[in-house]
Design brief:
Elements lengths: L6 H12 L11 H4 L4 H113 L2 H18 L5 H15 L6 H14 L12 H4 L10 H16 L15 H24 L2 H18 L5 H15 L10 H18 L1
Helix pairs in contact: 3-4, 3-12, 4-5, 5-12, 6-9, 6-11, 9-10, 10-11
Length: 360
């Protein structure tokens, strides 16, 4: 290319043309004039590529700087926001730590109170168990006394059932063995034959109430005989005196028709004591029913029947009814084989001894 020719070579043809005498140089061939230098082309191309790469790298670096700047700005804003959040988090942590400390303090106080309450509950529980055990022992002792001394199986059974219900309401596993012993004694009492103590007692009370109305065979005046004679308004002094003498004579001598010549003669005062002694015999039989003393019960009824047949009028209807009632009562059995209910009381005492040893 012409642009690649140096200035000196370009000026040379003009000077040579001006000198006509000089010989014209040999002109190069046309092919050599139009050939491009490969090294120069490569250099230009390389320089172009380098320039293009530098421009592209500059552009990318500039874009990267913008991105990095934007990212740094965002990071800076986020860092500030994070710093604010961290500050708030620190404040929250401080408040939370303060609350945790307060909760720990309250927890320690509540634990101390719980320990104190547990100790108090243990003391109350021991005192309550002690009180219940004392009450149960007293009830069992009463039941044993009712059975052994009075022979009252119903009262003993009621006492044992009361003790069992008291332990059931307390609901303490420690009293299971004691409840088993009490239930065994309850079953023994429930297996006893039934004696109608109330019925026998009512019949004996009815006989006692009828004693005063039963007529004696002899030795007691009728109400008409005991009543004094009324004075007449027209009687004079001698008539009144004669009537009083006659009343006194009738009290000294009595005339009565006796079918049984061996009937005992009783004065009015003796008749009173006879009735009272008969009442005492029936009362003794009543007590024997409560004690289930069959020997004493039948003995008292037998004596009462003998007295009734000997001293009272057997033809009277109420006397016959009294004899029939006494026979019915004498044929009844009031004796029962009382069981031994000391197992429950011994179990209570054993439980107390074991508890006292454990507390020591």
């Amino acid at each position: 290319m012409n642009s690649e020719t140096s200035p000196e070579s370009a000026a040379m043809p003009q000077t040579q043309a001006e000198a006509p005498g000089a010989a014209a140089p040999e002109s190069p061939p046309a092919a050599s004039r139009h050939r491009i230098d490969p090294a120069l082309a490569a250099a230009v191309l390389a320089l172009t590529l380098v320039g293009w790469q530098w421009f592209d790298s500059s552009r990318q670096i500039h874009a990267l700087e913008q991105i990095v700047g934007e990212r740094l700005g965002e990071f800076d804003s986020r860092s500030k926001e994070n710093a604010i959040v961290i500050g708030q988090a620190r404040e929250d942590i401080k408040q939370a730590l303060g609350k945790v400390g307060l909760l720990e303090q309250k927890l320690a106080e509540s634990q101390n109170q719980q320990v104190a309450l547990e100790a108090m509950y243990q003391d109350l529980s021991r005192n309550r168990d002690e009180w219940v055990l004392t009450e149960i022992e007293q009830i069992l002792l009463t039941a044993s006394q009712q059975l052994q001394l009075a022979g009252d199986a119903k009262a003993a059974l009621a006492a044992l059932q009361t003790a069992d219900s008291r332990l059931q309401r307390h609901d303490n596993a420690q009293f299971i063995s004691l409840r088993k012993a009490i239930n065994q004694d309850i079953q023994r009492l429930q297996a006893l034959p039934l004696v109608d103590v109330a019925g026998y007692t009512m019949k004996l009370d009815g006989l006692i109430a009828e004693i005063d109305d039963l007529p004696l065979l002899i030795g007691e005046e009728t109400p008409a005989e005991r009543a004094p004679s009324k004075a007449r308004p027209d009687d004079n002094l001698w008539a009144k005196l004669t009537r009083e003498i006659w009343q006194d004579m009738k009290q000294l001598v009595r005339i009565q028709n006796l079918e049984n010549p061996e009937a005992p003669l009783l004065a009015p005062s003796q008749a009173y004591f006879l009735r009272e002694n008969l009442k005492l015999r029936l009362l003794s039989a009543r007590l024997a029913v409560l004690r289930h003393d069959e020997t004493g019960y039948k003995s008292d009824l037998k004596v009462a029947e003998i007295w009734l047949r000997r001293y009272f009028d057997l033809k009277a209807k109420n006397v016959k009814s009294a004899l029939v009632a006494m026979k019915v009562l004498s044929s009844s059995s009031v004796a029962i084989d009382l069981p031994d209910i000391s197992a429950s009381l011994n179990a209570a005492k054993k439980f107390r001894l074991t508890r006292d040893r454990g507390n020591r």
